[in-house]
Amino acid sequence: MKSIALCTAGLVLSMSAHAAAPDPINGKRLFEQSRCMSCHTAESFTSPTRKVKNYAALDSQVRRCDANLSTNWFDDQILDVVSYLNQMYYKFPAPTLTPPKP
Questions:
Q1: Around Cβ 42, how many Cβ atoms within 10 Å?
Q2: What is the 3-state secondary structure (H, E, C) of 11-42?
Q3: Number of H helices, E strands in the chain
Q4: Which residues contact 21 (CB under 8 A, 6 or more apart)?
Q5: Which of 20, 33, 48, 81 is 20 to 30 A from 42 (CA-CA)?
């Protein structure tokens, strides 16, 4: 009985350790549904004087917008929007997903 519980626990832990890669297609859908362009223009993403200078800052900015607009996105949805904006406008090197150590 203990071995079944141990196997089940191991399976659950290994499943949660493998985070899905961000989905920029879903990010685009969320971005458009939330009417983000009502405040932002494409120029705000591409201007040489833009505030966002790296991937971490982009993530922080999307989280700020999520909080200010009460979109109530889940973390994976925020990462989808970050991925979409990065792919579409910013072109920052994306961080690599590394599985946690066992």
A1: 10
A2: HHHHHHHCCCCCCHHHHHHHHHHCCHHHCCCH
A3: 5, 0
A4: 97
A5: 20
* Domain presence at residue 101: no
Residue 33, in any domain of the structure: yes
For the residues 15-35, what does the mean pLDDT come to? 84
Indicate whether 100 pLDDT > 70: no
pLDDT at 8: 40
Instruction: Give the tokens for residue 3.
Output: 């071995």
Q: Total domain count for the chain?
A: 1
**CA 80/CA 82 separation, integer angstroms:** 5
| Domain limits for position 58 | 23-90
- Is 102 a domain residue? no
For residue 13, is it within any domain?
no
For residue 99, name the pLDDT band (cuts at 50, 70, 90).
low
Packing angle of the helix pair 75-85, 55-69 (nearest 10 deg): 120
